[in-house]
C-alpha cells in the first residue's frame, strides 16, 4: 500500500500559511518549501496572492503579519481540516435530543458547517450571534431563528458587545455549540478577541449544556481571551489528530471528549 502523502490543494496551503503566520509571526519561503513539498516559486506566488488580499506583508524571503491581528480570516478557516469538521458536525448532530429544542451557535468554521446541516430539523430554534450563520439559516423558514444584535466584528462575522449580551440575558438555551481558538484543561476555552470572549461567555451562561466543537489543532492550545473555564464545558467533540495528552487532560478535568475518525463513522 502506498504511503505517499497527499499534496495539499492551493486553498489548503493558503489557509495553512495564514495559520503558521498567526502562530509564529513570520514566514520564510525556504522552510515552507520543504514543509509543503512545493517549489519556492509556488510559495512566492501564494504569498503574493495573500499580499494582494491585504492579509500579510511581503518581506525579503518571506512575509510578516499585516497589522496587529493574528486571526485567520473566516473564508480561509473554511478550507482547513474540512473533512475533520464534517465528521465533528455529524457527531454533534447525533447529540441533539428529539423534539423541540433550543440551540445556540457561536461563530466559527465548524459551527458554520453545523448550521448547514440543520434545515431538516423544523423542531429547532437556533440562537446565534454570527452573521454568516444567520444568513444561511434565514433561507429556511421551517427553522425558528433568533439573531442576537450587537456590533459586527469582521474578523469572525460575529455580533458582540453590550447589546448582544443584553439580549442573551433574556434567552434560555438547551445546548450551546461553541467554536474556539483554543481549549486546554488548565486555561479553559479561549479565543483571540476579548470582546468576542465576553459575548460568547454570556451565551454559555444561558445554556444547560455546552458542547465545544474543535478540530484537533485546537486542543492543548491557549489564545488571548478566556471564554470560560474547562468546568463550563460538558462535552468536547474533536478528531483523531488531537494530541492524546491534551485529550487525556481534558477528560481528567471531568469533561466528556468524543474523538471522531475522519472518513469513518467510528467514535471513541
From TrEMBL:
Keywords per UniProt: DNA-binding, Transcription, Transcription regulation
Domain HTH deoR-type: 10-65
Single GO MF annotation: DNA binding
SUPFAM superfamilies per UniProt: NagB/RpiA/CoA transferase-like (SSF100950), Winged helix' DNA-binding domain (SSF46785)
Annotated region (Disordered), positions in chain: 56-81
Record PANTHER family: AGA OPERON TRANSCRIPTIONAL REPRESSOR-RELATED, HTH-TYPE TRANSCRIPTIONAL REGULATOR SRLR-RELATED
Protein name (record): DeoR/GlpR transcriptional regulator
Organism: Amycolatopsis balhimycina DSM 5908
Taxon lineage: Bacteria, Bacillati, Actinomycetota, Actinomycetes, Pseudonocardiales
